[in-house]
Amino acid sequence: MSTALLSALAGATIQDLYRELLLRIGEDPSRDGLLKTPERMEEALKFLTSGYEQDALEILHEAYFESEYGGMVVVRDIEFYSMCEHHMLPFFGRAHIAYVPNKKVIGLSKFPRLLNMYARRLQVQERLTEQVAHAIMQTTHAQGVAVVIEASHLCMMMRGVEKQNSTTSTSTMLGIFLSETQTRSELLSILAPRGRR
Ligand SMILES: Nc1nc2c(ncn2[C@@H]2O[C@H](COP(=O)(O)OP(=O)(O)OP(=O)(O)O)[C@@H](O)[C@H]2O)c(=O)[nH]1
Ligand SMILES: [Zn+2]
Q1: ipTM
Q2: H-type helices in the chain, by residue range?
């Protein structure tokens, strides 16, 4: 890209860029239905990438409660929407987050908040899974953390290979979930589809 073009782009707003994009795909950005579209797109993009402005400590740091609970906590079926970094198309599905506390439990709502934070960045499913697991482990010093994500990728559905029914599963196991087969088996039996337990 030429220096002149780069400096011209640097002065452009996100809405200018979206207007140009509409022109390049053969649309007329001045027609009635599209007049406010660059503004709407900017707003949507800011929301969908708002995770860059947050960090895990900020989300988790005031929601620890002392507890002697020594079992496993599993928050399952947390729905999420993210965008793949390759095509900037959505991938979405469900996450299951489990941990074994270490004298402190975390407010349950913080798990979906943490997932949303990482999901609202350009992602690959593998990294999303790892980031959620490591953030919980590092901030809470839990005995173990496990994150399982099942997702459908629109870049594999509405374009490319056009497969409508495939889903992708990823999992990250840390601490006791890695070292103890029994703990891992307990989690897998909790996550097994109902009727197959
Ligand atoms: N591992 C991983 N791959 C992803 C994820 N989301 C999208 N992809 C893949 O990223 C790859 C990008 O491959 P490229 O060959 O560079 O792009 P492409 O030509 O658009 O690929 P096709 O989708 O096969 O048409 C594709 O195989 C996508 O399926 C993800 O979360 N994890
Ligand atoms: Zn993609």
Answers
A1: 0.92
A2: 3-10, 14-24, 37-48, 56-60, 110-119, 125-140, 154-157, 176-179, 181-191
